[in-house]
């Protein structure tokens, strides 16, 4: 793996932290990014594996933030991109501020596809490269009390399906979509969902297991992976049940106060 280079976004905690750990363990030099100074402490942890680690604090909800990340590569060839950065947002849509829901949209959609738009041309030109994008099972479910977040993940899930088809002639380039269910990370705290049924659930997935599923699928060149058996079942059911039923089920998980019932 000498001289191979990977970018991992949203790497300060959770799935991104675990993906960066796997990349460093596999011998990649890595560039890790998050929108918080905690990424510097995470970078110190990744250095234990002996590869070169660079870190940058950048707001990937903005084009300028993505450009800051790319400038930190110093022109180095990107062999692997793990586009994992994302924001959650709970509560009813009408109770959310424009600033909050726009940040979710801009982080999960605009920042992600801008990063892909900047990195993929070089991979296609040399017909080599691996990309892992973190989508979600949420993208298959109308997200009552999490409507904006789920809809952004729906965009990512289907955007990557379309882009994968567009890239099929570049057979040396792979694009894998990781689709986890609820994961035991800081997501629910940052999304203000700790008082919800899903936020309080003890059955959330281990981020290390989710990251390993995604990393292995990417290395195999798989199109996508639902991480965990229950998530696979949800994916099947989402294609069978009416949207109104799915939305009502989601309300039971995500409505504020549902964890207190």
Automatic annotation (TrEMBL):
Per UniProt, the keywords (alphabetical) are:
Oxidoreductase
Molecular function terms from GO: oxidoreductase activity
Q: Read off the Pfam families from this record.
A: adh_short
State if Transmembrane is listed as a keyword. Answer: no
From what superkingdom does this record's organism come? Bacteria
Q: Does the keyword Oxidoreductase apply?
A: yes
* InterPro entries linked: NAD(P)-bd_dom_sf (IPR036291), Sc_DH/Rdtase_CS (IPR020904), SDR_fam (IPR002347)
Q: Which family does it belong to?
A: Belongs to the short-chain dehydrogenases/reductases (SDR) family.
UniProt-recorded name of the protein: Oxidoreductase
């Amino acid at each position: 793996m000498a001289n191979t280079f990977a970018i991992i976004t949203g790497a300060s905690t959770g799935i991104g932290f675990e993906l960066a750990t796997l990349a460093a363990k596999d011998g990649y030099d890595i560039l890790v990014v998050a929108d918080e100074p905690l990424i510097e402490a995470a970078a110190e942890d990744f250095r234990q594996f002996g590869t070169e680690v660079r870190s940058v604090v950048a707001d990937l909800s903005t084009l300028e933030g993505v450009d800051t990340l790319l400038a930190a590569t110093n022109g180095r060839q990107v062999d692997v991109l793990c586009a994992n950065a994302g924001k959650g947002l709970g509560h009813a849509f009408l109770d959310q501020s424009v600033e909050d829901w726009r940040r979710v949209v801009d982080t999960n959609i605009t920042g992600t596809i801008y990063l892909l738009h900047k990195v993929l041309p070089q991979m296609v030109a040399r017909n080599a490269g691996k990309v892992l994008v973190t989508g979600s099972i949420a993208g298959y479910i109308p997200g009552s009390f999490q409507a904006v977040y789920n809809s952004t993940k729906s965009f990512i899930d289907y955007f990557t399906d379309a882009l994968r088809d567009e890239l099929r002639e570049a057979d040396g380039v792979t694009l894998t979509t990781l689709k986890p269910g609820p994961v035991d990370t800081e997501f629910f705290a940052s999304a203000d969902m700790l008082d919800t049924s899903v936020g309080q659930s003890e059955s959330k997935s281990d981020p290390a297991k989710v990251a390993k599923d995604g990393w292995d699928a990417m290395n195999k060149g798989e199109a996508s992976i639902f991480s965990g058996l229950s998530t696979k079942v949800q994916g099947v059911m989402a294609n069978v049940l009416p949207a109104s039923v799915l939305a009502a089920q989601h309300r039971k998980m995500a409505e504020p106060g549902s964890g207190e019932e």
